[in-house]
Amino acid sequence: MFYSQPIVWQTRVIKDNQQVYTEEQSTLDLYESEVITPTETYRLKDIFDVSYKPFSDSYGLLYLHTIKGVKTYMVKESPEAWMEAYHQWK
Questions:
Q1: End-to-end Cα spacing for the chain
Q2: How far apart are CA 55 and CA 44, in angstroms?
Q3: Which structural domain range is residue 80 located in?
Q4: What is the CATH number of the domain that holds 14?
Q5: How many domains is the chain built from?
Q6: Which of 8, 17, 18, 27 could pair with 4 in a Cys bridge, judged by C-beta atoms 3.0 to 4.6 Å apart?
Q7: What's this model's pTM, rounded to 2 decimal places?
């Protein structure tokens, strides 16, 4: 693995007749020839670009522009280093 970017997502559950939000974590792992997400694997040649947009003091969105469409991942930490590593390998 060349570089790993922590990502988060929230799930909503109804428990005891109340909405409860839980935050789960995983990583986007960058390898020499692919990016592995919690649900999919993309070859680097199938990713056209990556971009990032902060939207609050705590969170931002990391976008993978792929042949399957734009995939969005919520991040708490800036993905600038991950994006630089991606561009070096691409």
A1: 15
A2: 26
A3: 3-89
A4: 2.30.29.30
A5: 1
A6: 27
A7: 0.87
